[in-house]
Specification:
The protein contains three helices and 14 strands. By secondary structure, it is mainly beta. It has a single domain, classed as tricorn interacting facor f3 domain (Immunoglobulin-like, Sandwich). The strands form five sheets. Strands 6-7-12-9 form a four-stranded antiparallel beta sheet, with no helix packed on it.
Length: 219
């Protein structure tokens, strides 16, 4: 992250996440990880942190103390170890019988309006524009996609592959998205396409067939 003003602490919004540890990393580690199969430097320089709950309806605030004052414009990387609550408001899990194909489970995120904080601790406000990246490890028979470009797919362990993503365009937090399932991508033009289960791909392509033309006209 880029420091906006001189500071000795960071506040991150979190909701339904069990925070386990926070560590200081070399600047640029988060970006580097998305370009290198998710490999993050192993550090044991844990920081002092605390959880505040000013408003239970909107979640908690993770307050992280930094070891020194970071000046405006400097770069800062931290690593938060946490476990997301399966009942998270930002993540929806579907059993196979809830999908059209009926064979594989399906998961998708919904970050509006302030549910991005339930997916990962962050400064979750539409006033904040972020770039982001992630690496997702799933069964080889499933496909993960994000609102970001794929930077690489790697073998993780038996039967599982890791796909890494990075979005370099600053976006509001609520546009951060992840979907995993029995999915296939069909291009509709230079900059558009649809993701759908194979059984409904043809119908989805037909429904959005004019999307590229609409975008071209709008632009």
């Amino acid at each position: 992250m880029t420091v906006a003003m001189d500071t000795m602490y960071i506040q991150l919004d979190t909701r339904g996440n069990n925070i386990e540890d926070v560590q200081l990393l070399p600047s640029g580690s988060a970006y580097s990880a998305t370009m290198n199969a998710g490999v993050v430097p192993v550090y044991y320089n844990s920081l002092v942190w605390d959880i505040k709950t000013p408003n239970p309806e909107s979640g908690d605030v993770l307050v992280i103390q930094l070891p020194m004052t970071y000046g405006a414009g400097s770069m800062l990387s931290i690593q938060v170890f946490y476990v997301t609550d399966p009942e998270s408001k930002g993540i929806t899990w579907l059993y196979p019988n809830q999908t059209d194909g009926g064979v594989w489970p399906f998961v998708f995120t919904y970050s509006e309006d302030i549910n991005a904080r339930a997916i990962a601790p962050q400064q979750d406000t539409p006033a904040n524009k972020i770039t982001y990246g992630a690496c997702v490890t799933v069964d080889k028979r499933l496909r993960p996609y994000m609102s970001a470009n794929i930077t690489g797919t790697y073998y993780a362990f038996y039967g599982y592959y890791k796909t890494c993503f990075y979005n370099q365009i600053p976006i509001p937090n609520y546009l951060m998205a992840l979907v995993i399932g029995d999915l296939e991508y069909t291009s509709l033009g230079d900059n558009t396409g649809v993701l759908a289960e194979p059984s409904i791909t043809a119908a989805a392509v037909e429904e959005f067939s004019r999307l590229q033309a609409i975008l071209d006209t709008t632009e």
